[in-house]
Amino acid sequence: MTQKKPLVVVTRRLPDVIETRMMELFQTRLNDGDTPMSQAQLIEAVRTADVLVPTVTDRIDAGVIAQAGPNLRLIASFGTGVDHIDLKSARERGINVTNTPGVLTEDTADMTMALVLAVPRRLAEGERLVRSGNWTGWSPTSMLGHRISGKRLGIIGMGRIGQAVARRARGFGLSIHYHNRRRVHEEIESELEATYWESLDQMLSRMDIISINCPHTPATYHLLSARRLKLMHPHAYIVNTSRGEVVDENALTRMLEGREIAGAGLDVYEHEPAINPKLLILENVVLLPHMGSATIEGRIAMGEKVIINIKTFADGHTPPDRVLETMF
Ligand code: 8YV
Q: What's the distance, CA 48 to chain centroid?
């Protein structure tokens, strides 16, 4: 990268303080309208930029990377998940990739816990009842949900977010079970009193609530396939704040319709922003618009990480949040 300020192209609107600081530090091209970029616009951006700042709504695939100009040396993504970026193509072109890990852990875990509580306790259904004007008053048998305390929570993906979910869930009296590519450190296991299941199939068949907290990678695509979903108990619930692609959304919808599982809390979908229309009419689901990390504090912290990554790289050093294919 040359000594002059790098040209940074940002694909979506970021918090004001972040955009202002970026303009002070870099030559910055912003997206004031916040409209997601088309593939053609992304190609235009990578042809001219020194640094691209994309988000989860941009598909930085092999086709886009193949069109990158000689100046593009860094893709500093605003977000933790990097499944929207073809890491292999980036590496082959000598383009570095960074993300923003750590700063959205607690917010995402809070939202996961909110769904873990909301679905069995029928929170959204109750809210709809009140707003509809059809609530006739308290009754001993109306709006009965299921108790959280004493139930088994199975966490798929025991990274930062999975562990933060486990900490919260313990406070609500849930027992912690998890499946992960590898077993977590003994100290963490004992702090969380967590039981490791090497077999995801076995864990699924024994849990009351499943929470998906793993990244989407080729290995986790449809990890919860139709076959695996069928292993769950009909009284079990599923919560997903990770990526929609980890679950076969059509299979899940069919099972929810048939009450083969009790309910779902979804913040993410397989083909965002499209949602299987059949989900929209089900009472036993809580549907959120990918807002797990959507706090002002979190978004500013994410932006600060992006700035640090770009500045460190522009100054000739390895950026702190460099992502390697081998990490996934
Ligand atoms: C982000 C997320 O808001 O960071 C992630 O991986 O899923 C979201 O919470 C989004 O990715 C921003 O690009």
A: 30
The pLDDT assigned to 11 comes to: 98
Ligand 1: centre distance to CA 47 (Å): 25
d(CA 138, CA 125): 15
User: Rounded to an integer, what distance in angstroms lies between the CA atom of residue 208 and that of residue 226?
Assistant: 18
Tell me 325's DSSP state: G
DSSP-assigned letter for residue 49: -
The CA distance from 127 to 151, in Å, is 24
The structure's pTM equals 0.95
Average pLDDT over residues 50-56: 98
199 exposure class (CB count in 10 Å sphere: 0-12, 13-18, 19+):
exposed
From the list 12, 73, 216, 243, the catalytic residue is: 243
| Mean per-residue pLDDT, 190-208 | 98
The DSSP line for 204-229 is: HTT-SEEEE-SPP-TTTTTSB-HHHH
**Nearest alpha-carbon partner for 198 in 251, 257, 156, 153:** 156
Q: Residues lining ligand 1, CB < 6 A?
A: 55-56, 78-81, 104, 292-293
**Nearest CA-CA partner of 55 in 34, 77, 40:** 77
